Amino acid sequence: MKRYPAYDPPEYVNWVADARLLDSYRATLAREPARAELVEGLEGATLLALYRGLLRFRLHDISLKRWVKRGVISKAWLGTGEEAVTIGVVQALRRYPGGDVVAPMIRNAGACCEMGIPMADLLRSYLGTADSPTRGRDLHLGDMDRGVVAPISMVGSVSTVVNGYALAFLRRSEDRVAVTWIGDGSTKSGEVHEALNFAAVQRLPVVFVIQNNQVALGTHFRQHHRAEDFSGWGAAYGMAAHKVDGNNVLDVHAAAIGAVAECRAGRGPVMILAETFRMGGHATHDEREAREMMSRETFQEWGRRDPVGLYEEYLAAIGRPLTAPDGEEAVPAGDPVAWNRELMSRIEADVLREVEHAEDEALGSRETSIPEAGPNEVRDCYS
Ligand SMILES: Cc1ncc(C[n+]2csc(CCOP(=O)(O)OP(=O)(O)O)c2C)c(N)n1
Ligand SMILES: [Mg+2]
C-alpha cells in the first residue's frame, strides 16, 4: 500500500519485506494441520476481503491522524500495527440480522466497519456531531442493529456484557457467537476474571481474544504480567486457548474460524491468544512517551512485521492468480504476481475513495449538525 510519511509510524514509511519474516509468516500458517488446511481452502474473495478490511482500518487511522495534525480533533486512539487481530476475527463471523455479536474496544474500531457501520459514522463520533450514532455524546460507538456493542470505558467490563448475549443465545438454542477483545492490561481487571470463569462454567458461546500489544497505557507488559505470556490461561479457566501471531491475519482468521465453529457446536467458550504490538502511543498525544518506554529496536522489529505489508507480499506470491472482487474479469494467463498486485492496488484505490468520502461526509456534518446543549442538559450538568 501507499505509505504516508507524515502519518505512518516511521518504521512503515520505507517498508520492504524482510525475506526471513516472510518465510516465517508462511511457516506459521503451516504450523498446525487444522489451521493450515483452513488457510489452504480459503477462496480468493475471502483473501481479498481480509486485505480490504486491513486497509480500511489502516486508512481510517490515517484519516484520524491527519485530523489530529490539522487540529480538527485533539487526539485519536489508533489500532495501527494491530489490525490483523481485529480483521482476522471479524471476517470469521456472521453479519446481522441474526448474526454474531462483537464488543470491540478502542483498539478494534475496524470491527465496526466490517460489521457494517459506515466509516462516516465512526468519524462523526470523533467529531461529536448531532447526527453521529451517539448524537454527539461519546466516541464509544456501537450499533445493535449490526451486532456491535459499544465499548465500555472501564476496560474489561464489556466482557461480562458479551456473556449476557451469549447466555441468551444459548438459552434460545441459537447458534450465534459473541466475541470480545481484551487487552493485556485489561486482563488485570476483576471483571475479566469473572467473565472468563462464568463463561467457562456456563459453557457460553464466547470467543475471548486476548490482545497482547505489549503495553497498557504507559505500563509495559513486563511490569504488569509476571508469567511469560497467556499460555496458561486456557487451562486455568478450563477452556480451549489458541495462540496466534497477531500480525498474521491468516493465522488469526484460521484460529477464529475454528474457535467460532467450536462455540456454535456448543463447545465454547474459546480464547484466542494474540501477540502483537502497538505501533505508537496509547493515543496520539503520548507517542513520544511510548517510544521512550520501548527500545528503538523493539519498534523496528515490530515495524518489519507490519501486518498489511506482510500480507500483501504473501498474497502477491501466493502462487495462483486471485479472482477479481467482481469475479467477472478473466484472469490473464502468465505470472500471477503482477495480477495479484494489480487486484490489490484496485482494492486500495477503492478503499481510499470510501475513506475520503467518509471524511467529507463527517466534516460536512460538522458544518451542519453540532449539537446544541439544551437548557435541561446544561442544568443537569451542574445540579
Ligand atoms: C477499569 C479501568 N482502569 C483504568 C482505565 C484507564 N485505561 C484506559 S485504557 C488503559 C490501558 C488498557 O490497556 P490494554 O488493556 O492493554 O489495552 P490497549 O490500550 O493496550 O489496547 C487504561 C489503564 C480504564 N479505562 N478502566
Ligand atoms: Mg495493551
Can you tell me about this structure?
The protein is α/β, with parallel strands linked by helices. The protein has one domain (10-382): Thiamin diphosphate (ThDP)-binding fold, Pyr/PP domains (Rossmann fold, 3-Layer(aba) Sandwich). It contains 17 helices and seven strands. The strands form two sheets. It has a five-stranded parallel beta sheet, sandwiched between helices. It has a two-stranded antiparallel sheet with strand order 4-5. Helix 12 links the parallel strand 6 and strand 7. It starts with 9 loop residues before the first helix and ends with a helix. It binds thiamine diphosphate (TPP) and magnesium ion (MG).
Salient structural properties:
alpha/beta; 383 residues; binds magnesium ion; binds thiamine diphosphate; 17 helices; Rossmann fold; two-stranded antiparallel ribbon
CATH topology: Rossmann fold
Could you give the order of the helices and strands?
HHHHHEHHHEHEEEHHEHEHHHHH
In DSSP terms (H or I, runs of 4 or more residues), the helix count works out at 17
Strand content: 5-15%
Query: What bound compounds does this protein have?
Result: thiamine diphosphate, magnesium ion
Mean pLDDT: 95
Measured as a percent range, the helix fraction is 40-55%
Considering the protein shown, what is the CATH homologous superfamily? Thiamin diphosphate (ThDP)-binding fold, Pyr/PP domains
Layout: helices, strands, pairs:
Blueprint: H1 10-13, H2 19-30, H3 33-40, H4 44-69, H5 83-90, E1 101-103, H6 110-114, H7 119-127, H8 158-171, E2 178-183, H9 190-202, E3 206-212, E4 215-216, E5 219-220, H10 221-224, H11 233-237, E6 240-245, H12 249-264, E7 270-275, H13 287-293, H14 296-304, H15 307-316, H16 336-368, H17 375-382
Parallel strand pairs: 1-2, 2-3, 3-7, 6-7
Antiparallel strand pairs: 4-5
Helix pairs in contact: 3-12, 4-5, 4-15, 4-16, 5-12, 7-16, 8-9
The structure holds thiamine diphosphate (TPP) and magnesium ion.
